[in-house]
Design a protein that fits this description.
- By secondary structure, the chain is of the alpha/beta class.
- The chain has a single domain, classed as Rossmann fold (3-Layer(aba) Sandwich).
- Strands 3-2-1-4-5-6-10-8 form an eight-stranded mixed β-sheet, with helices on both faces.
- Helix 1 crosses helix 6, helix 2 packs across helix 3 and helix 3 runs parallel beside helix 5.
- The longest helix has 16 residues.
- The two termini are about 30 Å apart.
- The model has no long low-confidence stretch (mean pLDDT about 95).
């Protein structure tokens, strides 16, 4: 497939680029600072641009089979929501249907899986703005009319790719560690390109 990755220079974005190339996909990496990617490959094209500028996003989307969104802004807001809105609008204009978007465990009905620390300290206070950004981001995706999947990972670790994690778990799931390596998150995101099971769904991912 020909895949467009937004947020390609982020910690998960780089994993997505690397693993997608390993799988034989043609990859376009959209990045504000392309030099940060530090990956070269014959099947990789890099587009310099800011996801907050809709005209640049509009020019990047045509010709792709799927779009992966791994936008991040630390504790800041707006980038995820506004960027995803611009991406969705560009996909709608060009007729690109498949969207896989990274959010976070704790949004919507997945809040039940969080412990006290994540509910009230992290997302309730320290990361309140970033969490609200994720909520708005999901709204843009779910209202898009596209073939969307929203992946809700637990807290990221720098661990290896294990392929051994839980996903799409019910509200009654017990014993979640609330952690997942970036490499395993990328693996799960890319798996959605070959599997329609989670279209119009919001699977959580955690050990």
């Amino acid at each position: 497939m020909k895949i467009l990755i937004f947020g390609a220079t982020g910690t998960v974005g780089r994993e997505l680029v690397t693993q997608a190339l390993e799988k034989g996909h043609e990859v376009t990496a959209f990045a504000r600072n392309p030099s940060k990617l530090e990956i070269e490959h014959p099947s990789l094209e890099i587009i310099e641009g800011d996801v907050m500028e809709s005209a640049l996003v509009d020019r990047a989307v045509p010709g792709h089979d799927a779009v992966l969104v791994a936008l991040g802004a630390g504790t800041k807001g707006q980038v995820r929501a506004t960027g995803t809105r611009n991406i969705v609008q560009a996909m709608q204009k060009d007729g690109v249907r498949r969207l896989v978007c990274l959010s976070t465990l704790g949004v919507g009905d997945s809040r039940v899986h969080l412990n006290f620390y994540w509910k009230y300290i992290m997302f309730g206070m320290l990361l309140r703005v970033a969490f609200a950004d994720h909520v708005s981001q999901e709204e843009h995706a779910t209202r898009s009319g596209l073939d969307w999947t929203i992946v809700r990972p637990a807290a990221y670790t720098d661990g290896e790719r294990t392929g051994n994690y839980r996903h799409g778990f019910a509200a009654t799931e017990k014993g979640l560690k609330l952690k997942i390596s970036r490499a395993d998150v990328a693996e799960f995101v890319l798996a959605q390109l070959d599997d329609n099971s989670y279209i119009h769904k919001t699977p959580g991912v955690s050990y």
